[in-house]
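Below is a concrete protein record.
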Amino acid sequence: MVDYRSNNNVVYSCRYHAIWCPKYRRPVLVDPIGGRLKEIVAGVCKETGAELVEMEVMPDHVHLLVGCDPQFGIHRLVKAIKGRSSRLLRGEFPQLKSRLPSLWTNSYFVCTVGGAPLDVIKRYIENQKSV
């Protein structure tokens, strides 16, 4: 059964798989940085009303499965997550400033997951560390 959400103007079910990586794909997203990143992402999703379905932080990239209001836009959500996490993580972990001119690359991957069953995508993200 499809889980529909709504705002004042739109009833929707938009879920996205987003992936992005640190500048130069450096493996810097290890604990405690990875744990703090998860907290920041969850906070941004809560503030924007996005539904955080699944997230996995690998040392050199991030997988995110998220439901997002189409009027807000996935591009604005990713921009908000990357912007806030870069500012906070670089402030809390000075080693990130010395190794990277900026935390994230400008680019990211995003696709809709309407065609594949959600549990298949969720399992794929959950099993990233065992691949």
The first helix runs from residue 33 to 48. Residues 3 and 27 are 36 Å apart (CA to CA). The first strand starts at residue 5 and ends at 6.
